Amino acid sequence: MIAIKHLNPQSLVSKNIETSTMENSVMDLCVRLCSLLGLPKSVGLIYGAVFVSPKPIEAGQICKKLKISRGSTSQGLRFLKELGAIRSSGLNGNRAEHFEAEEHLRLALENFILKKISPALKEIGQEIEKLEKITPGLDQHVLAEKLDALKRWHKHGKLLLPIVTGFLKTMPLLTRK
Amino acid sequence: MIAIKHLNPQSLVSKNIETSTMENSVMDLCVRLCSLLGLPKSVGLIYGAVFVSPKPIEAGQICKKLKISRGSTSQGLRFLKELGAIRSSGLNGNRAEHFEAEEHLRLALENFILKKISPALKEIGQEIEKLEKITPGLDQHVLAEKLDALKRWHKHGKLLLPIVTGFLKTMPLLTRK
DNA sequence: GGTGCCTTTCATTTTTTATTGAAAGAGCGG
DNA sequence: CCGCTCTTTCAATAAAAAATGAAAGGCACC
């Protein structure tokens, strides 16, 4: 079945953590926010764990706390780091890398949008260009019309993008500490 | 591996249709647009087939043309109809339902955004409300701070939504015929 | 150089999501 | 009412995505 998916209203993290309701719920929110962007639950959980932690947290603690595997944790952390949602805060004493949430989650969101949407729009643009070059046969004028419609959508999609990222800039920062 | 997914640059529909390059490419674009919204390929193909067709097309033709099953076709058409991306144009003569693309694809997009994002924001809002009611213990003031940050994000998310849908209203229509 | 501790990688497994096709439904014409 | 044609539904299957955990790599300290 094809359907627009929603997460169910009850707690999403209870299987993973059994700590204070408050912490639990804040992490729940993180999972929801991630899933809105189409990111897997584990990424939401990992981000939540870093976000919620009062001090930089290391991978080992995260995967123990969330009861998820070493591999998932590692990959999730890498993804979040590349995105700019968390950052490493050095190898406090021992060899364990410690993570904390970035102050500017907004940058991560912008990053995400740029990485995900921009290339898609670009490819669509290229596809349209290729199409333009084809001299349409006589029976294809209807298609040519449709192509024009798609072109307009593409143009306006490109326009919308900076508006959204621009709006993000006006948002208050999601700060830690 | 977790990664931001992109469709590969070469044709996405060649396995499904072997008609004119132009038609093929327009459908390709439809698939890309759908996948940007996280919809399955079949939905993109089906929408493409309806969009590209110079006259209302029936389900049977679609599933023959795309070489996909009756079930997928039926479900995809229902989904697109509910979304307002296509509409039924009566049972021309025989019992077969005929479909054509909606003029106002913009409405479908708004619909999609509203159905997908609004409920999520609402649930996040409820979750935050619930959290507010919890009197935080002494050791939880750090969490309370983080909750504030999330609250601000939620507020601004709600603000962004009408701006995006508002922007959609300024777009030229994606017209058929 | 060996040991302990932590990390990443990646082939395999599990879980989730999408697709299929057979069976059942629905309307029309005779 | 029956046969025909098209549709929907849904349990089974296939495909895709995510999670696991064993193996391999890195680094600090002895």
Give a nutshell description of this structure.
Chain A is mainly alpha-helical and 177 residues long.
Q: What would you report as the Rg of chain A, rounded to the nearest angstrom? A: 21 Å
Percent of residues in helices of chain A comes to: 55-70%
Largest sheet of chain A: 3 strands, antiparallel
Order of helices and strands of chain A: HHEHHEEHH
Oligomer: homodimer
In angstroms, what separates the terminal alpha carbons of chain A? 44 Å
Uncertain runs of chain A are 172-177
Average per-residue pLDDT of chain A, rounded, comes to 78
Overall 3D shape of chain A: elongated
Total number of helical segments of chain A? 6
User: Biggest chain pair contact, residues each?
Assistant: A-B, 68 and 68 residues
Strand content of chain A: 5-15%
Describe this structure in words.
Two copies of one chain form a homodimer. The longest helix of chain A has 29 residues, at 105-133. A three-stranded antiparallel sheet of chain A has the order 1-3-2. Helix content of chain A is 61%, strand content 5%. In chain A, helix 2 crosses helix 3 (59-66) and helix 2 crosses helix 4 (70-83). The first copy, chain A, is mainly alpha-helical and 177 residues long. The interface between A and B is large, with 68 and 68 residues. The structure holds a DNA duplex (30 and 30 nucleotides).
